[in-house]
Amino acid sequence: MAPSLSEEEIDDLIYLARVGDDTDLTNMLQELASRDAATPADILTAAREEQSKATCLHMAAANGHAKTVTLILSYLPVVAKTSVTAAPPPAPEGDESAQADRPYIDAQNAFGNTALHWACLGGHLDIVKLLLSRGASPAITNEKDQIPLDLAAFNNHMHVVDHFLAQSKDLEGGNAQEGGLAKEAEDLKMQDDASDDAAKVPESEG
Fold first, then answer.
1. What is the pLDDT of residues 92-150, one digit of tens each?
2. Is residue 69 assigned to a domain?
3. Is 206 contained in some domain?
4. CB–CB of 124/146 below 8 Å?
5. Which of 43, 61, 135, 165 is paired with 117 by a 20 to 30 Å CA distance?
6. How many CB atoms neighbour CB 87 within 10 A?
7. Residue 26: alpha-carbon gap to chain centroid
């Protein structure tokens, strides 16, 4: 049975992840898990903002809290790494079951963005590396058909783009020169506005 979290409890968990308060986040996860006979991973999965559908991982990644991202990932099962260019099959519009079948690390918010999208949007390379190392998919598209690489490129975070391209070359060898991310990066037009969702990412505290 899924944990039953109140709206206030979800708000508190989201807030603690957003500001990077690892001590209080750990304590609250453990208390709620004990109360509901669940695991911290169950609590994290259940804690999603009602309107934005953002998770604690979204918030920590968006605000550049690498230690908090590491803490959250420590509670999750390890996901097998995916190819940098292998996109998961698209789910039919409105199909929530496909979302539920995805691992927590790839959970999408109301705009279709994953935590990796938000880390790329903010140019947080350390968090991008963390998420990719734990199996986050770099090929999931948001509602604007953008993969995480696109958000990094649109915001001129070329250190993040370079990392993706290096990963692509390592995994695909010569094929990366002929297509995939390398070709897409060349075709991308730099622009100031990443997406409407950029306004939804909370600014870093302090």
1. 444 444 455 689 999 999 999 999 999 999 999 999 999 999 999 999 999 999 999 99
2. yes
3. no
4. no
5. 43
6. 13
7. 20
DSSP H/E element including 112: none
In a domain, 205, yes or no: no
- Measured CA to CA, the distance from residue 134 to residue 93 in angstroms comes to 27
The encoded tokens of residue 36 equal: 């509901």
The CATH number of whichever domain residue 60 belongs to comes to 1.25.40.20
- What CA–CA distances, in Å, run from 188 to 9, 173, 194? 41, 22, 12
Number of structural domains, the chain? Answer: 1
**Which of 107, 104, 66, 60 lies closest to 202 in space, CA to CA?**
60
Tokens 């999750």 found at = 76
Q: What is the pTM of this model?
A: 0.77
Tokens of 139: 């090929």
